[in-house]
Here is the input.
Amino acid sequence: MNGEVRAGQLTAEPGDERRETAEAESFGIDRIKFFSDAVFAIAITLLSLNLVLPGNTRQSNLAHQLGTLWPEYGAFAFTFLLIGLRWLTHLIQLRYIRRYDNTLLGLNLTLLLVVAFLPFASRVLAAYPDSTAACVLYTGSMAVAGLISTALWWHASRSGQLTEDPSLDAGTRRDLLIRWAVLPVLFGIAIILIIVGPGLWPARAVALCTPVLQIWLAIRSRRAGHPV
Here is the structure.
């Protein structure tokens, strides 16, 4: 009888091991989500610290001083939007990723490193809006963040780490990859325009089109029947 019990236990072990592995991976994905959400939340909150009134502000000149902060307002709003879109992208990606490896962890940690750097890049741009160096720093940071995010999805898709959701077919995976690749491509074009263009406005126009195009692609995908 003891032999039968031991045999039953042995036959149950592979299933138990698979279940324990799945639970451990699910717990690990949850930890990745929580840690990533915290970094995104801190980065997006730190943007408000860049909105500081000049030291010579008085009640008599408050309206004027508030009006001089338009570069800070613009950098804050635009960076808030881009970090928000990056967080939404990350949220969608981790919704479909069921397993992870060291490469995915490294890509995710590198993405968070760049996200944590974005408030500084935004502050530099707000302080020196007409500086080529400041514009390259900002657009380069955004391009790198978008590139790493796209690489994370590409790696998860190619290495079989995505969930077996019937709605996540090959067409949907390709559509998401294209949608997320738009940001690094356009910001890369903006960098080239900053360096070789006749001025900064062509590059600014391309950069401003980036979130608009991403939102339009997302709306088009939903209308085409894609789940995200």
